[in-house]
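Homework help board

Subject: predicted structure for assignment chain

Our instructor gave us this sequence and asked us to write out the predicted structure in token form, then describe one feature. I got the tokens but I'm not sure how to describe them. Can anyone check?
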Amino acid sequence: MHLTITVQAEHMSDELRSLDQELAEADELRGHVRPVAGRGTSTELGVVDSALMVALGQGGAATVLATAVITWLRRRVGHVSVKITAPGKALELNVENVRGLTADQIQALVAELSDSLSAGSDAGPPT
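My token output:
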């Protein structure tokens, strides 16, 4: 299953590159994440990365992705949100939702996000 991850932030391109680096550090995701180019805004010249495309395979990759995204978000400053779009669903997390969570709440959120992402990975192509 292919997922698209977008970031909304004041310095969107920098934050997207930072998330890309975070995901690249996970062995289960290495080689399965690639930036997707888009047009720059009126203040940016040329082509900039506008999203990340993730090829999510079987096994624990959904849990690794969920953990990496939540961990990355908890270290962000300011108003940063991440939208993960999969066939038939879109999930959104932001700094305000994850920063104050306890360890148990983080574990529950990782499990919920992982289950949601995994739900479509065996479904095959949409009809």
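Reply (TA_rk): Your tokens look well-formed. For the description, you could write something like this. Residues 122-127 have pLDDT under 50 and may be disordered. That's the kind of observation they're looking for.
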